[in-house]
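Hi again,

Forgot to attach this to my earlier email, sorry! This is the prediction with MU-OXO-diiron bound. I've pasted everything inline since the attachment limit keeps bouncing my files.
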Amino acid sequence: MISKKMADALNKHMNLELYSAHLYLSMSSCSNEKGLKGAANWFMVQYREEMIHFMKFYTYLIDQGINITLPASKAVPNSYKSLLEMFEKTLTHEQLITACINDLCELAVKDKDHASQIFLQWFVTEQIEEENNDRDLIAKLKLVGDNGHGILMIDGEMAQRVFVAPPGSPLAV
Ligand code: FEO
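Structure tokens for the complex follow:
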């Protein structure tokens, strides 16, 4: 049994993970429109990862006997001037997610909610990787600047990204 306050906070964050999925699906579409098929693949993989994050929260809340609340989906931006801008926005968004996860962890400690503390640990680790991936790509994109050949090389690397569902994932999408 988790507290109502904790359930509400987890539900709110679950919806933010769904927003993240939509944000990256839109970035995949924008990349495709720019002819960057590798980036489109990278963001599609990211979309699928976010759906797993969303479903992890969903399943945890259901297992705790909570009736979840879903909002109407909020419109996400669908226009970016460059791949660099997309990744700068992605990093800012992931830093927000990290801060939210940290707040949830603090609430779980305050509530003496050991189950939620254990559940949230996976996300604490995951956020290190999420932010690191974005920082690496931003650094590479800044190095090549407007050089089309350089951008295409990075796009080629991004085409290699493959979706791997974490073990025990609640949903393979
Ligand atoms: Fe689910 Fe990218 O944080």
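Helices lie at 4-33, 37-63, 83-110, 114-144, 148-158. The pocket of MU-OXO-diiron is lined by residues 17, 20, 50, 53, 94, 97, 130 (CB under 6 Å).

That should be everything now.

G.
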